[in-house]
Amino acid sequence: MMFDLPDPATCYASFFDSPDMMRGRLWVGVTSTGILCRPGCPARRPKPENCAWFASVPAALDAGFRPCKRCRPTEPAGADPLVARLSRALEDDPARRWSEGDVSAMGIDPSTARRAFRRALGITFLDYARLRRLQAGARELSRGSRVIDAQLEAGFDSGSGFRAAFARLLGLPPEALATRADALLQADWIDTELGPMIAVADDHGLHLLEFADRPALPRELARLHKAVKGRMTFGRTAPMDQAARELARYLAGDDATFSTPLTYHGTPFTCAVWDALRQIPAGETLSYSALAARLGRPEATRAVARANGANQIAVLIPCHRVVGADGSLTGYGGGLWRKDRLIELERSYGRATA
Hints:
Blueprint lengths: L7 H10 L1 H4 L4 E4 L4 E3 L13 E4 L2 H6 L3 E2 L13 H12 L7 H6 L4 H12 L3 H18 L4 H7 L5 H12 L14 E6 L6 E5 L4 E6 L5 H11 L4 E3 L3 H14 L16 H11 L7 E2 H7 L6 H9 L12 E2 L12 H18 L1
Parallel strand pairs: 2-4, 5-8, 9-10
Antiparallel strand pairs: 1-2, 1-3, 5-6, 6-7
């Protein structure tokens, strides 16, 4: 919840001397490093003149600050401590090839770790660690490095193993997304509290935004790659940055408005369904038949369901707001657990507008 910021001197004293009172209410951006921290961060206390104060994380992100890797201000304050502990260990040694033995060596039961990570991110810890290693390899490719350098950065001893894991995740070998000057589309990761997402965009709009563990992601990326005749690489564009900021605000419960420009890849009917999805207010749900009726095509319930399932821009095109005729949750490419969390989050938006 937003509140009026006191003067900088009071902010400084409250933030560092009474961190428990300020949790969830005040954040500091350190201008000398560009880092954003929450109260109680174990990092060294900055000088008062290097502090910029914010009443919300999205406001700080909009100002260009990046989250601290130690206090993780973008994570929910009530995050599972086991998940937080393993995540910190992963960030401290991102290229490590984690095994259940490594988890046990930390005094953590591997089965408990699996359950905790599935509850938090819908993926096991070992799968999440493998995903982050591949993400490190992708970042290396985005800097123009050779595939062998990306492989080593990702902690893979075998080139074939790296290529196979990369292709399973993204549907393309690493060579297909190596840096090229004539690229029309760029791809990158966006980290969210619901798990990492893959975004594809050009300078004008977002073409794809999917959770990295969505089964359909490799096929979707391969189709885009073919559509631009291979002119796709790793990189970052303005629409991706805008989507990342808007997702952070949305998941923090601050704003359900998305204005990132989108580029559709579908038939006229499919695009009409996606437009209709974007008209469903946050906090509301519709059945497939009700959505078909809203489009003036009451007989097209099945076609609407297919178009809904073909959506490749998650959250910003809110296909999670479509439920069964009896109100039950139906299939969702990002996993029913995410659909449940998104609908639960949006209830607060619905109450705010009631």
